[in-house]
Design a protein that fits this description.
The protein is built from three helices and four strands. The protein has 161 residues and is α+β, with helices and mostly antiparallel strands. The chain is rod-shaped and about 95 Å long.
């Protein structure tokens, strides 16, 4: 009878809780899941920040293209400064700065959360004919020790027919 009583009490103890190896294995699986989730969320955040900076750089290039396309230009007058043949370089243009982005119409609640990223915008205007110019706008910046470049090209004719 002692054998049955001890077997019965062992079965009850076994049903009442987990063994140490079971708890350790479950904890290890949970820790692995948490670590993987944190790593995945960190990578997703990096991709989002990179995409946000690329979008802001594209908007910065588009802003200059819009200025080139909308500046009044007549063959009877002088050539506007923005359409003068040559290269113009603007440095230290903040990509993720709320004050600058508000002026450019790009404000966001999330633009000023990271380390400030500055861009360089280079505009090359070339003469095609007396009534046409071509322009190439290049925006470059560095994020996480990687250089990024955005290039936009446009053609512009005079407003005269």
């Amino acid at each position: 009878m002692d054998f049955r009583a001890s077997k019965s009490s062992r079965s009850r103890r076994r049903l009442l809780g987990f063994t140490v190896p079971e708890v350790v294995i479950a904890g290890a699986i949970l820790a692995l899941f948490v670590a993987t989730s944190v790593a995945a969320m960190t990578q997703i955040n990096r991709w989002a920040a990179s995409a946000r900076l690329r979008t802001l750089a594209l908007a910065l290039a588009q802003q200059k293209v819009d200025q080139i396309l909308t500046t009044p230009w007549s063959t009877l007058g002088t050539v506007p400064t923005i359409l003068t043949v040559g290269t113009t370089t603007e440095t230290s243009l903040p990509l993720n700065n709320d004050a600058f982005n508000s002026e450019a119409g790009l404000s966001s609640a999330f633009t000023n959360l990271d380390l400030q990223i500055n861009a360089t915008r280079t505009t090359v205007v070339r003469s095609i004919s007396t009534r046409q110019v071509g322009a190439t706008v290049t925006v470059t910046y560095t994020y996480r020790n990687r250089a990024a470049t955005i290039v936009m090209n446009t053609l512009r004719a005079t407003d005269d027919f």
